[in-house]
Amino acid sequence: MVNNRELTEDGLEKNFATNTLGTYILTTALLPLLEKEADARVITVSSGGMLVQKLNVSDLQSGNGTFDETMVYAQNKRQQVVLTEQWAKAHRNIHFSVMHPGWADTPAVRSSMPDFYQKMKNTLRTEAQGADTVVWLAVSSEATKLPSGLFFQDRQPVPTHLPLASTHSPLEDEEKLMEVLEEFSQKFKSTSLGS
Protein backbone atom coordinates (compact mmCIF):
# COMPACT_ATOMS: atom_id res chain seq x y z
CA MET A 1 0.00 0.00 0.00
CA VAL A 2 1.39 3.37 -1.03
CA ASN A 3 0.60 5.81 1.77
CA ASN A 4 0.59 8.98 -0.35
CA ARG A 5 -0.83 9.65 -3.77
CA GLU A 6 2.07 8.87 -6.08
CA LEU A 7 2.09 8.34 -9.82
CA THR A 8 3.97 5.80 -11.90
CA GLU A 9 6.12 7.03 -14.79
CA ASP A 10 3.05 6.35 -16.95
CA GLY A 11 0.96 8.78 -14.88
CA LEU A 12 -1.08 6.14 -13.04
CA GLU A 13 -1.80 6.25 -9.32
CA LYS A 14 0.47 3.53 -7.90
CA ASN A 15 -2.10 1.64 -5.81
CA PHE A 16 -4.51 1.46 -8.75
CA ALA A 17 -1.70 0.50 -11.13
CA THR A 18 -0.53 -2.34 -8.91
CA ASN A 19 -3.68 -3.70 -7.32
CA THR A 20 -6.25 -3.23 -10.08
CA LEU A 21 -4.74 -2.56 -13.48
CA GLY A 22 -1.82 -4.94 -12.91
CA THR A 23 -4.23 -7.69 -11.86
CA TYR A 24 -6.36 -7.01 -14.92
CA ILE A 25 -3.48 -6.98 -17.42
CA LEU A 26 -1.81 -10.11 -16.04
CA THR A 27 -5.03 -12.10 -15.84
CA THR A 28 -6.39 -11.11 -19.24
CA ALA A 29 -3.02 -11.89 -20.84
CA LEU A 30 -3.20 -15.41 -19.39
CA LEU A 31 -6.85 -16.10 -20.26
CA PRO A 32 -6.20 -17.63 -23.72
CA LEU A 33 -3.78 -20.15 -22.19
CA LEU A 34 -5.97 -20.83 -19.17
CA GLU A 35 -9.01 -21.49 -21.39
CA LYS A 36 -7.16 -24.50 -22.85
CA GLU A 37 -6.37 -26.12 -19.49
CA ALA A 38 -8.51 -28.74 -17.76
CA ASP A 39 -8.25 -27.39 -14.19
CA ALA A 40 -7.44 -23.73 -14.71
CA ARG A 41 -7.79 -21.50 -11.67
CA VAL A 42 -7.25 -17.82 -11.00
CA ILE A 43 -7.02 -16.73 -7.38
CA THR A 44 -6.78 -13.06 -6.48
CA VAL A 45 -5.64 -12.08 -3.00
CA SER A 46 -7.89 -9.25 -1.91
CA SER A 47 -8.80 -7.97 1.54
CA GLY A 48 -11.78 -7.86 3.83
CA GLY A 49 -11.12 -4.11 3.85
CA MET A 50 -13.11 -3.97 0.61
CA LEU A 51 -16.26 -4.57 2.64
CA VAL A 52 -16.33 -0.86 3.56
CA GLN A 53 -16.19 0.34 -0.04
CA LYS A 54 -18.71 0.61 -2.84
CA LEU A 55 -17.22 0.45 -6.32
CA ASN A 56 -16.39 3.99 -7.45
CA VAL A 57 -15.76 4.10 -11.19
CA SER A 58 -15.76 7.90 -11.30
CA ASP A 59 -12.39 8.17 -9.48
CA LEU A 60 -10.41 5.01 -10.16
CA GLN A 61 -7.09 6.77 -9.63
CA SER A 62 -8.04 8.56 -6.39
CA GLY A 63 -7.44 12.03 -7.77
CA ASN A 64 -10.46 13.71 -6.21
CA GLY A 65 -10.63 14.82 -2.60
CA THR A 66 -8.24 13.98 0.20
CA PHE A 67 -6.08 10.90 -0.35
CA ASP A 68 -6.83 8.29 2.33
CA GLU A 69 -4.49 5.37 1.69
CA THR A 70 -6.58 2.88 3.66
CA MET A 71 -9.75 3.70 1.73
CA VAL A 72 -7.84 3.72 -1.57
CA TYR A 73 -6.53 0.24 -0.76
CA ALA A 74 -10.04 -0.90 0.19
CA GLN A 75 -11.40 0.51 -3.08
CA ASN A 76 -8.73 -1.35 -5.08
CA LYS A 77 -9.65 -4.54 -3.25
CA ARG A 78 -13.36 -3.97 -4.04
CA GLN A 79 -12.32 -3.58 -7.68
CA GLN A 80 -10.54 -6.95 -7.53
CA VAL A 81 -13.69 -8.61 -6.22
CA VAL A 82 -15.71 -7.12 -9.07
CA LEU A 83 -13.08 -8.28 -11.59
CA THR A 84 -13.27 -11.81 -10.24
CA GLU A 85 -17.06 -11.87 -10.41
CA GLN A 86 -17.06 -10.52 -13.96
CA TRP A 87 -14.40 -12.94 -15.17
CA ALA A 88 -16.26 -15.88 -13.62
CA LYS A 89 -19.34 -14.96 -15.65
CA ALA A 90 -17.39 -14.56 -18.89
CA HIS A 91 -15.00 -17.53 -18.66
CA ARG A 92 -16.86 -20.67 -17.61
CA ASN A 93 -13.88 -22.99 -18.22
CA ILE A 94 -11.74 -21.24 -15.59
CA HIS A 95 -12.41 -21.32 -11.86
CA PHE A 96 -12.04 -17.82 -10.39
CA SER A 97 -11.75 -17.09 -6.68
CA VAL A 98 -10.88 -14.04 -4.64
CA MET A 99 -9.88 -14.27 -1.01
CA HIS A 100 -9.07 -12.43 2.20
CA PRO A 101 -6.07 -13.93 4.01
CA GLY A 102 -7.08 -12.44 7.33
CA TRP A 103 -4.85 -9.92 9.02
CA ALA A 104 -1.42 -11.52 8.95
CA ASP A 105 1.88 -10.36 10.41
CA THR A 106 3.69 -9.49 7.20
CA PRO A 107 6.30 -6.86 6.34
CA ALA A 108 3.63 -5.06 4.28
CA VAL A 109 1.28 -4.77 7.26
CA ARG A 110 4.12 -3.59 9.49
CA SER A 111 5.32 -0.90 7.08
CA SER A 112 2.04 0.24 5.52
CA MET A 113 -0.09 0.27 8.66
CA PRO A 114 2.26 0.81 11.61
CA ASP A 115 -0.47 2.04 14.01
CA PHE A 116 -2.70 -0.92 13.17
CA TYR A 117 0.27 -3.26 13.57
CA GLN A 118 1.18 -1.88 17.01
CA LYS A 119 -2.40 -2.30 18.27
CA MET A 120 -2.99 -5.73 16.73
CA LYS A 121 0.44 -7.40 16.60
CA ASN A 122 -0.40 -9.96 19.28
CA THR A 123 -3.52 -11.14 17.45
CA LEU A 124 -2.33 -11.17 13.84
CA ARG A 125 -2.13 -14.42 11.93
CA THR A 126 1.18 -15.92 10.93
CA GLU A 127 2.17 -15.73 7.27
CA ALA A 128 1.42 -19.46 6.96
CA GLN A 129 -2.07 -18.97 8.40
CA GLY A 130 -2.65 -16.10 5.99
CA ALA A 131 -1.55 -18.26 3.05
CA ASP A 132 -3.69 -21.27 3.97
CA THR A 133 -6.81 -20.35 2.00
CA VAL A 134 -5.00 -19.23 -1.16
CA VAL A 135 -3.05 -22.51 -1.23
CA TRP A 136 -6.25 -24.48 -0.60
CA LEU A 137 -7.98 -22.64 -3.47
CA ALA A 138 -5.04 -23.42 -5.75
CA VAL A 139 -4.79 -27.17 -5.13
CA SER A 140 -7.93 -28.52 -3.49
CA SER A 141 -10.48 -30.42 -5.55
CA GLU A 142 -13.06 -29.26 -2.97
CA ALA A 143 -12.52 -25.64 -3.97
CA THR A 144 -13.59 -26.19 -7.57
CA LYS A 145 -16.80 -27.91 -6.46
CA LEU A 146 -17.93 -24.48 -5.27
CA PRO A 147 -19.18 -21.90 -7.80
CA SER A 148 -16.65 -19.75 -9.60
CA GLY A 149 -16.40 -16.09 -8.64
CA LEU A 150 -16.79 -16.40 -4.87
CA PHE A 151 -14.98 -14.48 -2.11
CA PHE A 152 -13.29 -16.70 0.50
CA GLN A 153 -11.92 -16.46 4.00
CA ASP A 154 -10.73 -19.44 6.02
CA ARG A 155 -11.57 -21.83 3.18
CA GLN A 156 -15.22 -20.73 3.22
CA PRO A 157 -17.16 -18.55 0.83
CA VAL A 158 -18.23 -15.37 2.61
CA PRO A 159 -20.43 -12.43 1.56
CA THR A 160 -18.88 -9.57 -0.40
CA HIS A 161 -21.17 -7.03 1.27
CA LEU A 162 -21.97 -6.36 4.89
CA PRO A 163 -25.65 -6.14 5.86
CA LEU A 164 -26.93 -2.56 5.59
CA ALA A 165 -23.57 -1.30 4.26
CA SER A 166 -24.84 0.11 0.92
CA THR A 167 -21.81 -1.22 -0.96
CA HIS A 168 -23.71 -2.87 -3.83
CA SER A 169 -22.95 -1.36 -7.23
CA PRO A 170 -25.14 -1.17 -10.27
CA LEU A 171 -24.22 -3.60 -13.05
CA GLU A 172 -23.47 -0.60 -15.28
CA ASP A 173 -20.65 0.45 -12.90
CA GLU A 174 -19.16 -3.04 -12.93
CA GLU A 175 -19.28 -3.11 -16.72
CA LYS A 176 -17.75 0.38 -16.85
CA LEU A 177 -14.84 -0.82 -14.67
CA MET A 178 -14.14 -3.61 -17.15
CA GLU A 179 -14.34 -1.20 -20.10
CA VAL A 180 -11.98 1.35 -18.53
CA LEU A 181 -9.47 -1.33 -17.57
CA GLU A 182 -9.56 -2.74 -21.09
CA GLU A 183 -8.89 0.74 -22.49
CA PHE A 184 -5.92 1.20 -20.15
CA SER A 185 -4.59 -2.27 -20.94
CA GLN A 186 -4.74 -1.60 -24.69
CA LYS A 187 -2.44 1.39 -24.20
CA PHE A 188 0.11 -0.85 -22.50
CA LYS A 189 -0.24 -3.63 -25.06
CA SER A 190 0.38 -1.10 -27.84
CA THR A 191 3.43 0.26 -26.01
CA SER A 192 4.86 -3.18 -25.38
CA LEU A 193 4.45 -4.12 -29.06
CA GLY A 194 6.26 -0.99 -30.17
CA SER A 195 3.20 0.65 -31.76
Please provide a written account of the structure.
With about 200 residues, the chain is an alpha/beta fold. Helices cover about 45% and strands about 10% of the residues. The chain has six helices and four strands. Helix 1 packs parallel to helix 2, helix 1 crosses helix 6 and helix 2 packs across helix 6. The longest helix has 22 residues. The mean pLDDT is about 90.
Based on CA atoms alone, the radius of gyration comes out at 17 Å
Residue stretches low in confidence (pLDDT < 50, at least 5 long) are: none
E-strand count: 4
Structural class: alpha/beta
Please state how the strands of the largest beta sheet are arranged side by side.
1-2-3-4
* Portion in beta strands: 5-15%
Shape: globular
Cα distance, first to last residue? 32 Å
User: Helix count?
Assistant: 6
Major β-sheet annotation: 4 strands, mixed
What is the helix content? 40-55%
Residue-averaged pLDDT, rounded? 92
State the order of secondary-structure elements, H for helix, E for strand. Answer: HEHEHHHEEH
